[in-house]
Design goal:
This protein folds into 2 domains: 153 residues, Alpha/beta knot (3-Layer(aba) Sandwich), CATH 3.40.1280; 54 residues, Orthogonal Bundle (Trp Operon Repressor, Chain A). The protein is elongated. With 234 residues, the chain is α/β, with parallel strands linked by helices. 30% of the residues lie in helices and 18% in strands.
Length: 234
């Protein structure tokens, strides 16, 4: 997979992409990350990428020309692909694990990371394929949400995690929160690991974990369950 990030602050991505799972994913050739400063595509002699909104109002709005031209440049550089073009925006559809799994099946993703008051509406209407929000709050720009999505998608790619089964049991992967985990020692400060996990009976352990996932979801995120107590379909 290839991921391109159109941003005014490409330096924000350097630490994230050079550590941990994202670094390993690149070393294993599962994904490649590319940042592009769309200010370089501004036709304005001062390289401005924003302007005052028509009709008045506070703040500045990103103009369409630099972003359209930057996306065109990425497409020209990568012929033969049909990239998903993702706009990071508080008005977008809420991000969730099912969307991460959907995006993980793509060959090429382009993220548009905005700043200032917002985007010229023509960017939304005629350029992007997806508008995504990572929560009902407002950030300074789209860089942090883009990193969140990149991380959640990358870990789903084949060969990225040490065990491809790991992602299948994560919270939300089956509509439930993940079951509790324990490791050594079996007793710590009087707190004991549940006996079932020490039994060696794999089927009973599987059933216990499933029941724990259901109970944990019911307590913490009941909206994820149907009225019959079963996880909602993705």
């Amino acid at each position: 997979m290839r991921m391109d990030f159109l941003t005014l602050f490409p330096e924000m991505f350097e630490g994230v992409f050079s550590a941990s799972i994202l670094k390993q994913a690149q070393e294993r050739n599962a994904v490649s990350y590319h940042t592009l400063n769309f200010r370089e595509f501004s036709a304005n002699k001062h390289q401005k990428v924003d302007d005052y909104p028509y009709g008045g109002g506070a703040g500045m709005v990103l103009t369409p020309q630099p972003i359209f031209d930057a996306v065109d440049a990425v497409k020209i550089e990568n012929p033969g692909t049909s990239p998903r073009i993702i706009l990071l925006c508080p008005q977008g559809a809420p991000y969730h694990q099912a969307k991460a799994e959907e995006l993980a099946g793509e060959e090429h993703l382009i993220f548009i990371c905005g700043h200032y008051e917002g985007y010229d509406e023509r960017i939304r209407e005629h350029l992007v394929t997806d508008e995504i929000s990572v929560g009902d709050f407002v950030l300074t720009g789209g860089e942090l949400p883009a990193m969140i999505i990149a991380d959640s998608v990358t870990r789903l790619l084949s060969g990225v995690l040490g065990n491809d089964q790991s992602a299948l049991t994560d919270s939300f992967s089956d509509g439930l929160l993940e079951h509790p985990h324990y490791t050594r020692p079996a007793e710590f400060r009087g707190m004991k690991v549940p006996d079932i996990l020490l039994s060696g009976h794999h089927e009973n352990i599987r059933e216990w974990r499933r029941e724990q996932s259901l109970q944990r979801t019911k307590r913490r995120r009941p909206e994820l369950l149907n009225c019959d107590g079963k996880p909602q379909k993705k």
